[in-house]
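ingest -> validate -> predict -> emit
validate: passed (alphabet ok, no gaps, 199 aa)
predict: started
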Amino acid sequence: MTEEQLMVPTKIYLKAGIHIGTKFKTKHMEKFIYKIRPDGLCVLNLEKVDERIKLMSQFLSQYQPEDILLVSKRENGWKALKMIQEMIGIRVFPGRYPPGILTNPNLDNFIETKVIVVTDSWPDRNAINDALHVGIPVVALCDTNNQANNIDLVIPCNNKGKKSLGLLFYIFAREYMKAHDMIKDEKEMKFSVEQFMEE
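emit:
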């Protein structure tokens, strides 16, 4: 794949460490792994990562902002989620997801949504279980050690690092806003990729 076909230049992906996995791999994630380094760390195939981010952006662009819910128990995803909420109006749930908010209309914080995105299928499993219960699609960012059962769309990536999550959500925000004519190009983004990735 040429540089022009990628969502961002290779060096930006590499600098963010979006391709660096863990020392563990599951059978679900094997097809996304490019190699295993001498130190035992799994390295994800960058082309497949890029391909799936593009697929995620196209899929979610079919929905209105109020129909999407982004969930991240992992603190490294909170800032990026809040920026997406501010720029696009997509609902976000940074922090511990209380089970039942999608399934129990009697709860004060009950919400209805048409699709859910989680930053990690293990800590965000309560949200996935709720989504399964109400029958809505689940998009999950998955590292090499993640299980992918009950996931409709797997996005292989380093789902633990702040820079990696920041870059992924920045690309998604940019593509979503372009698809919905909220911006014409990247220059009109309210926040820069660096702001999404800040430590």
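The chain has a mean pLDDT of 94.
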